[in-house]
Amino acid sequence: MTVLDSRPDVPGDPQGRIINPMEGSEALISEAGVSMAPVEDLGAGRGPFWLDDWLRANATDVLAWRRHIHAHPELSRHEFATTELVVTLLRSVGLKPWVLPGGTGVVCDIGSGERCVALRADMDALPLTEATGLPYASTTEGAAHMCGHDAHTAILLGAARALAGAPELPGRVRLIFQPAEEVMPGGALDMIAAGALDGVERIYGLHVDPRLEVGRVGMRVGALTSAADLIELRLTSPGGHTSRPHLTADLVHALGTVITSLPAVLSRRVDPRSGTILVWGAVHAGQAANAVPQDGVLRGTLRTADHEVWTALEPLVAASVESLLAPTGVGFHLDYRRGVPPVVSDPESTALMRAGTEAALGEGAVAPTEQSSGGEDFGWYLEHVQGAFARLGVWPGPPAPQSDIHRPTFVLDERSLLCGVRTLVHTALTTLA
Questions:
Q1: Is the CB of residue 352 less than 8 Å from the CB of residue 427?
Q2: Domain residue limits, the chain
Q3: Which of 111, 233, 267, 342 would disulfide-bridge 172, Cβ 3.0–4.6 Å?
Q4: Which of 429, 430, 426 is nearest to 43 (CA)?
Q5: How far is CA 113 from CA 81, 117, 173, 421, in A?
Q6: For 224-250, how does the pLDDT look when each residue is reduced to its tens digit (9 = 90+)?
Q7: What's the pLDDT score for residue 297?
Q8: Which pLDDT value is given to residue 35?
Q9: By three-state DSSP, how is residue 58 classified?
Q10: What ranges make up the beta strands (E) of 133-181?
């Protein structure tokens, strides 16, 4: 595995607590310990005994880690402080984490043996301004954890430190703390290139779901998310007066042709059962009402839940754009950026994760969930090894409102953190059993 050693001088006390992490605001983690109200552990008493004991003693630490990360968000491929926090907390319990060559992203093994199962969390924040009003809201201008990656990281840290204290493990558990999930190409490719999947037989991950009640985990066999590609089309024209469009190439009309016709063409050229959809998000051209502009740009996303359709979309889009624009005389350049493949959970891995979740939270914990058109670079891992991805309920339930992810007002029920720890631990144990 290609790795660089992390910095050994990260500040922290022997218990792995970060010293003075929130300068200028109320400290959530300090040398003296954590001061906050505990939350209910919905899986308490379900064992194993060492997991129950660890959560009883450390549940507020998991919350504090999440709140610290939430207050100090870092954008994609700049998760340096978050990486150092992860390294410090893993080292404090005798583990030996590795940092990727880029300085963000951590890989760490727990246990020994030939068999190895991986657990993944993403660490990056979104370029948004938080509007929650929480006492631990983002202190970084233009960055906020509005997708729950702060929770993902804290959950995996909790699972790691609990597993590190287990009397014995039936194999190895690999921890993957991934940077840059929110950009393309995603940080999953960096992890894979560094060897994070070497020797791994299955991989699992969780993503917060504000539509699902806390204590429940959404699963499905097959596609959970869609492939997501970016399309940028730049058009050129000699320009001219709008009174004489026949003497030039009408760029705006050409843009309109592509805007309306390309989605229609694709809907007739791919299997409608594939969930393929093209939606434009930006169009720019011209300034004056009586002038044909010389250039314009059109941007959008193309998504599909079908892996075979995904591999065929780029040439199909290129041929369709050329055909649509040929009669207009407008020049063009198509930039088609392949994004992420669909996240497709295989039946056996899903069954193992279901069994682990039910052992962790009870028989009624697993909920059905729908396939989403959203993209998630966890799909890249599943191109190499089998695995499953699930949705972790973070909604408190009625009458609380549901606050969607990627909004400045997104909040979650912190009881979900302990549910996540239990789910990952039991899934790993079930898989290795």
A1: yes
A2: 49-225+342-432, 227-337
A3: 111
A4: 426
A5: 32, 11, 10, 23
A6: 999 999 999 999 999 999 999 999 999
A7: 98
A8: 57
A9: helix
A10: 172-178
196 token code pair? 């994070």
Q: What is the pLDDT of residue 26?
A: 36
Distance CA 297, CA 328 (A): 16
CATH number, span 49-225+342-432: 3.40.630.10
| Tokens 């009174």 sit on residue | 243
Binding residue numbers: 147, 149, 182, 207, 406
Task: Report the distance separating Cα 371 and Cα 173, nearest Å.
Answer: 28
CB 195 within 8 A of CB 143: no
Which residues make Cβ contacts (< 8 Å) with residue 166, sequence separation at least 6? 48, 50, 51
- φ, ψ of residue 119 to 5 degrees: the values are -125, 130
List the binding residues for Mn(2+): 147, 149, 182, 207, 406
Classify 227-337 by CATH class.
alpha beta
**What pLDDT shows up at residue 12?**
37
Crossing angle between the packed helical segments 415-432 and 49-71, to the nearest 10 degrees: 130
Q: Which residues of the chain have pLDDT under 50?
A: 1-34
Cβ atoms within 10 Å, residue 41:
18
- Cα–Cα distances (Å) from 76 to 122, 123, 127, 180, in that order, read 10, 8, 9, 4
> What's 345-375 look like in SS3?
ECHHHHHHHHHHHHHHHCCCCEEECCCCCCC
The count of C-alpha atoms lying within 13 angstroms of the C-alpha of 310, restricted to the half-sphere facing its C-beta, is: 24
Give the residue carrying structure tokens 């969780």. 206
Task: Please give the structure tokens belonging to residue 19.
Answer: 């010293």
Please indicate, yes or no, whether the overall pTM of this predicted structure exceeds 0.90: no
**Backbone phi and psi for residue 369, each to the nearest 5 degrees, phi listed first:** -145, 155
Closest CA to 377 of 145, 176, 187: 187
